[in-house]
Amino acid sequence: MKSSKVSKLVLKYNEVLKESMRNVVAEDLVNLIIVNGDDKEFELKDMISKKAKFKEMVFREFMRLNSNVVTKELAEMEEVKLSLNKSKLRLKI
Fold this sequence. Notes:
Distance between the termini: 30 Å
Number of helices: 5
Shape: elongated
Largest sheet: none
Radius of gyration: 19 Å
Number of strands: 0
Order of helices and strands: HHHHH
Helix content: over 70%
């Protein structure tokens, strides 16, 4: 698969991917707050009641902290070569 095809697909589904990232990062943060006893003073229920604003705020802060690191790591990644064997993909009904 060529990187130009991947780029086009990412561009096509960019809004969906951004929303997925917002959901995942916010959910992971909530789970970490729940599990980590050091963060008990954080008022989680107030933030969760304003879910969309909370997700946006968490994602914005995450990207602010990590955008250079993520960009650097993506630039250094090797392109993954995929191959599918059609015979293995057939469903048996």
